[in-house]
Amino acid sequence: MFVMVLFYAFSAVLIAAALGVITTRNPVHSALCLVLAFFTSAGIWLLIEAEFLAIVLVLVYVGAVMVLFLFVVMMLDVGVEELRRGFTRYAWLGWLTAFVVILELVGVIAARRVGVDATRSPVPLPADYGNTHELGAVLYTKYVYAFELAAVLLLVAIVAAIALTMRKRPGLKVQDVSQQVAVRREDRVRLVKMDAEKRP
């Protein structure tokens, strides 16, 4: 019973945080709402004994991705508010997505009638069980090729992002390291000797 109360509490907070992400005009406030959504999602995963996924969500998304997002928003002065002016143009897509999610929820609830109890709590596991070990055993044996392919794709994406960032654009200021190293003092500093003057 207590687990169900926690689930509904976390779900309510998660829905409120998700709404705050898309309705808040300030991009920093929107990012903070997204952090709250990640934390509550991690709490829900803990309820179903998915500790590894919960801690990965907190460490990777909250600890790394959101920090980078806040850095981009606050340091690069991205005009997010200007991008959100056309928010109503894509409202139909949001309503369509919400309708599909509601249909999926109704389908899960209706599946109980055919003998599948989707609301039943998971079977308690022994104290020495670790889902991290089981996940690693499956990931590095059965799905090792897919795992390596994902790593290669991420590497290609990183290289492509760096290449797009470093490409030459008109008005882009870049450093010329060789020119900076070859600078001489005589070209930068000029010493001028002046006689001392007395104040009147």
Number of strands: 0
Order of helices and strands: HHHHHHHHH
Strand percentage lies at under 5%
Distance between the termini: 92 Å
- What is the class of the largest domain in the CATH system? Mainly Alpha
Number of alpha- plus pi-helical segments: 9
Number of individual domains: 3
Main β sheet profile: none
Mean pLDDT: 79
Describe this structure in words.
With about 200 residues, this protein is mostly helical. The protein has 3 domains: about 1-80, Four Helix Bundle (Hemerythrin (Met), subunit A) (Up-down Bundle), CATH 1.20.120.1200; about 90-125, no CATH class; about 130-170. The protein contains 9 helices and no strands. Helix 1 runs antiparallel to helix 2 (about 25-45). The longest helix is centred in the N-terminal third of the chain and has 25 residues, at about 50-75. It is elongated and about 100 Å long. The termini are far apart. The model has no long low-confidence stretch (mean pLDDT about 80).
